[in-house]
Design goal:
The protein is α/β, with parallel strands linked by helices. Helices cover about 30% and strands about 25% of the residues. The protein is built from 5 helices and 7 strands. Strand 6, helix 5 and strand 7 form a beta-alpha-beta unit. The longest helix has 16 residues. The protein is globular, with a radius of gyration of 16 Å.
Length: about 170
Amino acid sequence: MNAYTARQAIYNRKENVVAYELLFRDSLTNVFPKIESNSATSKLLLDSHFNQGLEKITSGKPALINYPEQALLDLMPTLLPPNKAMIEILESVRPTAAVYEACRQLFHKGYRLVLDDFIYSEDWVPFFKLVRLIKFDLQQSTFSEIEIVLEKIRPFKNLKILAERVETQ
């Protein structure tokens, strides 16, 4: 059985790799296949952690793994040790009370939460005390839009930001 996982390096300001985002693939073709998102996350965990080992894929650096809403509600991230992976809350996840409770439980178990492809909404404000990283997709958000959000999240000192889809230096 072949296992396929794509990894995307995440760099800091000094251009050092500090983590890898792991992405589900089902062949050598480097595209997300037509598959339901909960199934993709389940297969990614099976292939990357249980079959290959996260440390091997990430060279010991943290792995960022996408979780859709149902996977969060099912506390699927607890299949991994909290020091090995960061939980990316997909942009399709709704900021409901049930999602907040799942995130609160994960946070108190030591998991680091990430808001992926973030678009600001007041409904996300309670989550900011649980989240450690907010990712902005530069192909979806303008710098002006990001500046407005940065002003709103400034009081939350625990938050770091990350720009993704930066294709050149």
